[in-house]
Specification:
It is built from 17 helices and four strands. The strands form two sheets. The protein has a two-stranded antiparallel sheet. The chain has a two-stranded antiparallel ribbon with strand order 3-4. The protein is globular, with a radius of gyration of 23 Å.
């Protein structure tokens, strides 16, 4: 099991296009983010007024979230972050940070004479936790994967959830498996994590939604609380995105580049000092940025941090999705089918290109999909791809994708 976790896996981009640069992965994730953000903005008022969405709107929201989840997976893997492992860590960390301390935090807030609502209790939980992310190591993730397999087998054999969890505990105990993790929070509290408490967690969007339903039910969180949390996470992505541009290549097969907006690390430090003084970034974030000593270190930090922030957005979106009547499994399946349109068009792109460039192919296929959908029957790739090549060949330089201008109200 550990060997499987350590084995590098190809991203979808790599399977379909071959090796592509980080900027191309980011463009896919950003496009999914922008589409999801637009859908959220369009449906935000309705969700606040009614607490839900109806019919096609609910499914469209889920479909956009599913495409965001797929898009961020490619970018995460390209930056060295395994999205499956990171998602499980985020979900476990959320429960350990908040649910484990909820009653104590509520009592502390009340003792301070503050109304113990969701915001004040969560704030106190964060104080008790500190600014850090709990992670399981490879062996602990392997134990969890083994336990999850046993749990799912027990459910398939007709056991109830409680029976399945108890059966897993008995089997793991008899096998002498270590299932507890001792850790100390950044705030200094010693705790014990029981890995088997999390056997039902999977990195699929459907599982994330189920976990969020349980988490937010325990916290008595409202739709407005969930939307506030989601928009806060989206704002983190927007902030990081503001530090760089995406420059296209000068030729059709030239790779895109992520280019920082700062000439020196000192320029960046001046910028974030102004941001901190204006209350636009937290003290903790400011301190982490100030520890970076070069533009290369800054870019590496931004890419990895963006990957985790994308995961946080998906998890936060699940807090909204469990409140709307959408078929999440169908949304995931539809997103995968939609993505295969690119793979289906690849053979035509390779034949149509005089010079096959790894960076050009995703852009050509995206342009071809637009071309084919604008009047060509049945996505006629044989005619759409050459038209897309001709359109792109006339462009000397590719403009950067527009900045994420998301109205967060």
């Amino acid at each position: 099991m550990t060997a499987e976790l350590d084995k590098p896996q190809l991203t979808w981009h790599e399977e379909v296009y071959g090796k592509v640069p980080t900027a191309e992965h980011f463009r896919t994730a950003e496009a999914a983010f922008q589409n999801f953000a637009a859908t959220h903005a369009n449906m935000r008022d309705t969700m606040l007024e009614t607490g839900t969405l109806e019919g096609d709107n609910a499914q469209e929201y889920a479909n956009r979230a599913a495409r965001l989840a797929l898009g961020m997976r490619e970018f995460c893997r390209n930056t060295g972050v395994d999205p499956d492992i990171a998602t499980i860590d985020v979900l476990i960390g959320r429960d350990e940070k908040y649910l484990r301390a909820w009653q104590r935090a509520s009592a502390l807030v009340e003792a301070e004479g503050i109304e113990p609502d969701v915001v004040s209790i969560k704030t106190k939980c964060r104080e008790l936790w500190g600014k850090w992310q709990l992670t399981l190591d490879a062996e602990e993730h392997a134990v969890l994967a083994e336990a999850r397999g046993l749990y799912e087998m027990a459910l398939s054999e007709g056991h109830t959830d409680d029976e399945a969890q108890e059966l897993v505990r008995d089997i793991m105990r008899l096998g002498g498996r270590k299932t507890e993790k001792q850790y100390i929070t950044q705030a200094g509290a010693a705790r014990t994590l029981d890995i088997l408490d999390y056997v039902s967690l999977k990195p699929s969007l459907e599982s994330i939604v189920a976990s969020s339903r349980k988490f937010e039910g325990t916290c008595d969180q409202s739709m407005s609380d969930s939307i506030r949390q989601l928009e806060s996470e989206m704002a983190e992505v927007v902030e990081l995105r503001s530090f760089f541009d995406v420059h296209g290549g000068e030729k059709i097969d030239s790779p895109a580049q992520m280019v920082l907006k700062f000439n020196t690390i000192e320029d960046f430090r001046t910028h974030i000092t102004q941001e901190a003084n204006g209350g636009r970034i937290s003290e903790g974030e400011y301190n982490r940025f100030m520890q970076l000593d070069s533009l290369d270190a800054l870019m590496a930090y931004i890419q990895e941090h963006l990957a985790f922030e994308c995961i946080d957005v998906v998890v936060a979106a699940a807090g909204v999705m469990h409140r709307i009547p959408a078929n999440v499994a169908a949304a995931e399946a539809d997103a995968r089918v939609d993505r295969q349109r690119y793979a289906a068009a690849l053979e035509y792109a390779r034949d149509a290109l005089d010079t096959y460039g790894i960076a050009a192919t995703p852009r050509i296929i995206r342009k071809a999909i637009d071309t084919a959908e604008q009047g060509m029957p049945a996505l006629d790739w044989e005619h759409a791809i050459p038209q897309a090549v001709a359109l792109l060949s006339n462009e000397i330089t590719y403009a950067a994708d527009p900045a994420l201008m998301v109205s967060l109200h």
